[in-house]
Amino acid sequence: MMTHSFGPRCRALAAGMLFSLAPAPASVRAAQGDAPNPLVAPFVSVNAKTVAIRHVRLIDGTGASPKTDRTLIISGGKIVALGPAGSVAIPPDATSIDGTNRTVMPGYVGTHNHLFTGVERPRHYWRSMPFSFPRLYLAAGTTTIRTTGSMDIYGDMHIKQRIDAGLTVGPSIDLTSPYLTGADNRDLEMDDLRDADDARKTVAFWADHGVHSFKVYTDITRAELSAVIEEAHARGLKVMGHLCSVTFTEAAALGIDEIEHGPFVTDTEFVDDKRPDTCPSNDAQEAAQLQTPVESPKIDRLIAEFVRRKLPMSSTLPVFESFVENLPPDEEFTKTLDLLDPEQKDAVLTDRKSIAEGKPFGLDLKGKPWPAGALLKKEMAFELKFFRAGGLLTAGPDPSGYGATIAGLGDWRELELLVQAGFTPVQAIHVATENGAIALGIHNRVGTLAVGKDADITLVVGDPSARISDIERVETVFKDGVGYDSKKLFASVRGSVGRL
C-alpha cells in the first residue's frame, strides 16, 4: 500500500535497506516423512509418510457449508483421501491426529503479502523482513504468498530459494518484481520507467531473472503500463497494480491481471478534471472518494466491468484500518506489539497516538477531518457489493504502512474485517483461499481441500464458521504434507519484527 489517498502526505523518503542473502545451495526440499534440515526441524510437529486427521470439521475453501466428522488422509505431500469418517479407511502405518473440536481449512493464498515493512525512525523507509515475515505467514496458516512488489528483490529471491530448498521455513512464494512506476515517483527503492521501451526491457530483464509477476505503481503512464502488460503476457506472466495516474477502467482495458486495494483507496477515475497519465493530489482523491456513494451508477459500472472481464481485486483492509482514528484497543494489536522489536514498537505507538490526537504523523489537518475511518467503511461496503455481484475478490494484509500491520496477524485481521463488512466466515475464508489460488493461476493445486490437491492445510481448534476469531487458534499448519507448530514459529520471532 505505502502512500495512498488518506496516508501521511508529509513523509520525507530515505533510502531503503538492502538486506542481501547468499544464494541457497542447489538442493531439494525434504519430502513428507523424510528428515528435515536441522534448521527447519525444531518447527516440525508432524512428519510421517502418511497422516490421518480423524473426526474433524471441514471447511473446504469453495464457499460450501462446513462438513462435520470428516477424515482426511495425507501422503506424498498430497490429499489422497477425504470423506465421512466412517467411510475412509485409515492405513495401518498412518500417524493419526484426533480432529475432535477442530477444523481443517486450506492454507491461505495471500495476494498482497510483502516481505518488507514500513519503518518510521529516524525517517520513513522500507525494511526487508527476511527472517520474521516468512515464519509469521506460515504460523498463521498462509501457505502461499504473492509478494506483490519488492523493495529487496535479490533478498526475496534468496528467501524463496532457501524455502524451496528446505533450508528455512516459510510459505510458497510467487515472486513479484520491484515496483515499476513513472517519472514522478518519490520512493527511492522503486524503478522509474523512462518510457514504453524501457518498460519492455525492464520486464524482460526481471522475467529472465526468475520473477513470476509484476507490480506497477502510482505514477506509471498508460503507454508504459501497456508495454509492461504486453511483455509480461508474452512470457506467460501476470501484472497487478496499485494505481493512481492510470484509472481502474483504463488499466482493465489495457489487460491488467489484478487491481490492488479498491476504489475508495486508490481509484482516481471519479476525480473531476483528472488529467491523463497524472496522479491527482491527495486532496482531490479524498474529496472524490468521499463524495462518491457506494450505491451509485459509477460504482455499478466499475463492478460490472470487472465482473465481465473476470478481473480480480485484492482486498487489503488491515493496512487501511491501521490509519483509522480512535481505534479501540484490541487483542490483535496487543499481539502485534508483543512481536515487534522494541524500537519499532515505540515508533508504532507514537504514530498511533498522533493519529488518535488528530495530528497524524505530524500533519496539520487545518480543521479538516481525517478521512481514513470514513473511507475504510466505504471500502468495506464496496468489497461486499463487489463480491455479491460475482467479483473475484482476493485477500492480503499489505504489511507496509508505518509498521502496525504485520505478516500473519494481518492475514487473520483481513478475514475478520471481511466478516465485519458483512461476509459470512465461510465466504471470507473462500476469498482468502480458493479465490487467491484462482487469481494466481494455481487453483489446480491449492486453495481448496480435495483429493489430489497439495496438502497445504491449516488445523485450528474450534469452529471458524461460527466464530471467525477461531482462525487465530492455529495448532498445526501443513505445507506439502509436513506439519509445522504454529506457536513455536510465532515464539521464534517475538521481539524481532520490524528489525529482521
Quick structural overview:
This protein is of the alpha/beta class and 500 residues long. 32% of the residues lie in helices and 19% in strands.
Separate helix tally: 14
Question: How many structural domains can be distinguished in the coordinates?
Answer: 1
Tell me the name of the CATH class: Alpha Beta
Could you give the count of β-strands?
21
Identify the CATH homologous superfamily: Metal-dependent hydrolases
- What would you say the CATH architecture is? Alpha-Beta Barrel
| Secondary-structure content class | alpha/beta
Distance between the termini: 20 Å
By CATH, the topology is TIM Barrel
Rg over C-alpha atoms, rounded to the nearest angstrom: 22 Å
Largest sheet: 9 strands, mixed
The shape, in one word, is: globular
Low-confidence sequence ranges: 3-27
Helix content: 25-40%
**Beta-strand residue percentage:** 15-25%
Averaging pLDDT over every residue, what do you get?
Answer: 93
Your description of this structure?
With 500 residues, the chain is an alpha/beta fold. The chain has a single domain, classed as Alpha-Beta Barrel (TIM Barrel), CATH 3.20.20. Helices cover 32% and strands 19% of the residues. The protein contains 14 helices and 21 strands. It has helices spanning 132-140, 153-164, 196-208, 222-234, 248-254, 282-291, 297-309, 317-321, 331-339, 342-356, 372-388, 409-421, 425-440, 486-492, and strands spanning 44-46, 50-58, 67-75, 78-84, 95-98, 102-106, 108-110, 116-119, 125-128, 142-146, 172-174, 176-181, 191-192, 213-216, 238-241, 258-260, 313-315, 393-395, 457-461, 474-479, 482-485. Strands 1, 2, 3, 4, 5, 6, 19, 20 and 21 form a nine-stranded mixed β-sheet that branches. It has a seven-stranded parallel β-sheet with strand order 13-12-14-15-16-17-18. A three-stranded parallel β-sheet has the order 7-10-11. The two termini are 20 Å apart. Residues 3-27 have low confidence and may be disordered.
